[in-house]
Design goal:
about 290 residues; alpha/beta; two-stranded antiparallel ribbon; 11 helices; 10 strands; about 15% strand; globular
């Protein structure tokens, strides 16, 4: 018997971190939830006509406007007097969140809508061919930031979306990882218990785009956290309230299991640049477990 609110039988790739995270999010949110979903991988593989993997009310919006459509849903529920019994979640990938949909997301946060926005961060536009997004990591090889004789991949750092969301003065911002399911679900439940706009960014490995074995999704997700490249943090009322501390591992352990970083493995200078990013995160958020 299937007790999940995100059902099996969809067409996600084997080992898809996004499908795992979506199930964790919706199961934590519960059946009294309405979802507005941007165009992207999750929308494509979970709602191939005439089928749907969603066991809750679910709306497909354009690439750029899940936050705007969800704002309308939330406003309608308030008008009907039923908002207090229904969770509203807007969700999309990294491209539709940090790039194409940033304006609509900012508007949702600024207006104070009681909505949880979830960004499934697989770090590129995977559905359309692994193009770089604003959340693609530094020096990643993608189809629009190719590594070559004069390039080591993406030249830009990840856009600081949690900080951008927090700058709107919203009550809750968090990052999570599919490699830490209990932490992820705890944060979803906490976010939904808070009135007002919330932002949650979830790291979701993509075996196809990251070029790692599909059986390694959890391992790869955990390594990103354990080396300091993807800190798990929570902000409440613009104050850092919790972090997941780690015994830091070298970033090379994370890089070497992914084809998107293969071009860096014989480039100590490039690896040092990425290690510097991890070290900066560890210092900024006090991530290292104290002896």
């Amino acid at each position: 018997m299937n007790n999940h609110l995100f059902s099996a039988g969809h067409t996600a790739c084997s080992g898809c971190g996004q499908s795992l995270a979506a199930r964790l999010v919706i199961d934590a949110a519960g059946k009294n939830t309405m979802v507005v979903n941007n165009t992207g991988c999750l929308e494509v593989f979970s709602t191939k006509y005439p089928e749907s993997a969603w066991e809750i009310p679910w709306v497909h919006s354009l690439f750029e406007n899940a936050a705007a459509v969800a704002s309308g849903v939330e406003s309608a529920l308030k008008y009907l007097g039923t908002k207090d019994t229904i969770n509203v979640i807007a969700q999309g990938g990294d491209g539709s969140t940090a790039d194409i949909g940033l304006q609509a997301l900012s508007g949702m946060l600024e207006r104070g809508h009681d909505i949880l926005y979830v960004c499934y961060d697989n770090e590129a536009y995977m559905n359309t061919g692994v193009q770089r997004s604003g959340l693609t990591p530094f020096e990643t090889n993608t189809t629009t930031s190719p590594a070559g004789l004069k390039s080591v991949g993406n030249m830009r750092p990840k856009k600081p979306m949690p900080e951008i969301a927090m700058a709107h003065g919203i009550p809750y911002v968090a990052t999570a990882s599919v490699g830490f399911p209990q932490d992820l679900q705890r944060k979803v439940k906490k976010a939904l218990s808070i009135k007002g706009p919330k932002y949650m960014q979830i790291h979701v490995p993509c075996p196809l785009g990251w070029r790692h074995p599909s059986a390694m999704t959890f391992d790869v997700a955990k390594l990103a956290v354990e080396c300091g490249l993807y800190p798990l943090i929570e902000y409440e009322s613009s104050k850092l309230s919790a972090v997941r501390q780690i015994q830091p591992k070298p970033v090379e352990e994370y890089l070497k299991v992914q084809g998107r970083f293969k071009h860096l493995l014989n480039n100590p200078e490039a690896i040092k640049q990425i290690q510097d990013i991890a070290d900066s995160n560890i210092l900024k958020y006090n991530l290292k477990v104290q002896a």
